[in-house]
Amino acid sequence: MGQILTIDPITRIEGHLKIDVEVDNGKITNAWSSGQMFRGIEIILQGRDPREAWIFTQRLCGVCTTVHAIASVRAVENALKMEIPLNAQLIRNLIIAGHTMHDHIVHFYHLSALDWVDVTQVLQANPKNAANLAQTLSPWQRNTVHEFQAVKDKVKAVVDSGQLGIFSNGYWGHSAMKLPPDINLIAVTHYLQALEYQRMINDCVGLLGAKTPHIQNLAVGGVANAINLDDQTALNMTTLLRVKHLLDEVQQFINQVYLIDVCAVGSFYLDWAGYGAGDMNYLAVPEFPTDTKGEKFDMLGGTIFKGDIGGATAIKNFNDPYFRDNVQESIAHSWYDGDWQKHPFEETTEPKYTGFDRNGNYSYVKAPRFKGKPMQVGPLAQVLTSYAVGDKMTQKYVGVAVDTIKAVSGKKIPLAALHSTIGRHAARAIRCAVVNEMAMSHWNMLVENLSKGDTEYFNKPVFPQGEIQGFGFHEAPRGTLSHWVVINDGKIKNYQCVVPSTWNAGPRDAEGQKGPYEASLIGNPIADSKRPLEVLRTIHSFDPCLACAIHAFDPEGNELGVAETNI
Amino acid sequence: MSDKGAILGIGNVLERDDGIGVKILCYMDACYRFPENVELIDGGTCGATLNTAIIDKNWLIIIDALNAPGEPGEIRVLAGESFIHRPAQTKMSPHQVGFLDLIQLMRFEGTGPEEIELIGIIPKDISHSIEMSTPVLQTIEPVTRQVMELLKKRGIVPERRVPPRTPNYWWMN
Which domains does chain B have, with CATH numbers? Predict the structure, then answer.
């Protein structure tokens, strides 16, 4: 029997995600993913006005505010069989695009790059060589000796002060860190520049959503932005031009920096194209609707089972029964009362904590299944399914990534390499570039439609007596999100959210099928069991976000706890 | 005025006492008129996305639930760099960029508020519900007074609304 490692942020008021891995001869042989916090928004929503649900659901999570607002209004509109005005659809799309780019940029640079980039190695870098290398890979104007030298000095000052701040928990000097010093310097420099661009794209969301961090402009039936191109108090041409300017700026960063960095870093970690594949079942829904009914989309989605890209099935529209009828959640190994597997409309949410038991129940996360199978969701699922069903823009940026990796490593990477830990990062960068280009085209559509004289932005919802049901999906930055609502006499009777991190982080089901996190960890190497960097690499590659709602500060300091026990 | 600041309420109003920061913010907004250079920000559960809201501020007063030893409803005021330069939380806590991480990032970048004070309230119960516990609810007045004291030190005295408005606790309706 191998050794069990537990990784858990031990000192938070309540836990977040806890991963147990069994390690044998330096390799992971088994894994358990446990969400340590109960998420009971569904209960709070019962009896409320469905028109207000989105205001509550956007507080579900600190990061994914916008996405839960979007999925919620779509679910209620679906129940009412409503169309929404084209302007509203396009404004929502621009908000979705902005939020997505923000998430992907922050995820790579500020949440996961330091799993691969050793900040302390920057001190060994040569800014001149770094500039030469960076300039051969990208036309980015800011890849100058001056910028690289300034960042090297900055890192040196931080290291000399002994106050590592944001860098204090890194696994510096770990044997699994393989980047040359100059690449580390390039990455850390872009880590800093990324802060500026994530602010720009967040501003873009704020301009369209009336406010950040919580957008104010959604409504069941459309948006609440009064539109008048010449009126200072409404959504006008000045605002729209500002949005366009921000999209342009961020496009440069995504195409010339983010996408290039992911490929350059990935070129030194091609061994990680061999880890983290898991079951290779993928689910993504179509996004960026271009009509009032939600039947036409610019980004396609569907399902792939066992990596069979040729056999992909498309999910076609907001009413597609292929999606509606095939989602279920299992609580066989979760801390809820019962052991059923049910459709979201029929689910209940009755927590029943029974202690952590790897052979029994071990998570507050339910286990979603599609046609009975665990499915990976997220940018990789979206890119692969889009690619499979013939999405030209996705195919174009996959090509850019393949060419960049070839330029750095001299190796031609097959599409199958995307089924991996490093592949999830590549897919996220590819998707980010696609989303930016799509945002540009939807900006044009919006301006064109407005200049035709169409200023409609809201259709009033009318609730019938009796019971109706609806579902709303959204291809969020972390993957497929769906909200399921049952409304009775105009009040919410049941509400369920099946969120991306539930798909990915869910536990085993009644048949013992592992969730995607669990499956993707099997076979990963562990070089140093006291510093299990490799587990973080694979889990972070999913952009995990569980229990993102507690923000209580601890004055004593919250360090990553690594406890070891033997079974 | 060039000296800009913000009072930032953080927490989840759907998790009982965790939302006390946001609740106190709503209360203060109903009782006082703040000068133009002081912004009240409902930070909710956000981390990285608060970056744009605080980038142009010179100082911040944060109100939040605080995980610390002590009795529910106890109030702690933390100031200075020491609580900011704790070890970062980002590692396994998958929690995007937490708020303190954001501040550390901005420190590294050389941007954001120079002075940060935190008024923390020790929660009793942070399970999923919109009802707060009595000891935590009783901190609304004292924390408000505490904020007024901190503002006074900056030469800022917000004007009382007479009569006060009804606080907009939208999640309670």
Answer: 5-172 (3.40.50.1450)
The reported pTM is 0.91
Question: Which residue on chain B is closest to A11 by alpha carbon?
Answer: B67
CA-based nearest residue to A542, from A560, A562, A523, A516: A516
Any A CB within 8 A of B78 CB: yes
Residue A386, SS3? helix
* Chain A interface, best mutation among B54, B67, B81, by max A CB count within 10 A: B67
What pLDDT digit, counting tens, does each position of A141-176 carry? 999 999 999 999 999 999 998 877 778 767 889 999
Q: Which residues, in sequence order, are CB contacts of A168 under 8 Å at separation 6+?
A: B87, B88
Give CA–CA dist A124/A104, Å, rounded.
Answer: 29
**A539/B98 Cβ within 8 A:** no
Residues 6 or more apart whose Cβ sits within 8 Å of residue B141: none
Q: Does B133 touch chain A (CB under 8 A)?
A: no
For B63-97, what is each residue's pLDDT tens digit? 988 877 789 999 988 887 766 665 544 333 333 45
Q: How open is the CA angle B127-B129-B134, to the nearest 5 degrees? A: 85
Map out the domains of chain A with their CATH numbers: 39-510 (1.10.645.10)
User: Cβ separation of A169 and B91 shorter than 8 Å?
Assistant: yes
Q: How many CA atoms within 13 Å lie on the side-chain side of A6? A: 15
Q: Which two tokens stand for residue A493?
A: 């009777």
The total of other beta-carbon atoms located within 10 Å of residue B126's CB is 25
Q: Out of B67, B97, B170, name the one closest to residue A106 (CB).
A: B97
- The C-alpha angle A24, A25, A30, rounded to 5 degrees, equals 25
Q: Annotate A93-161 with DSSP letters as a single string.
A: HHHHHHHHHHHHHHIIIIIIGGGT--GGGGGG--HHHHHHHHHHH---TT--HHHHHHHHHHHHHHHHH
B41-B46-B47 Cα angle (round to 5) = 110
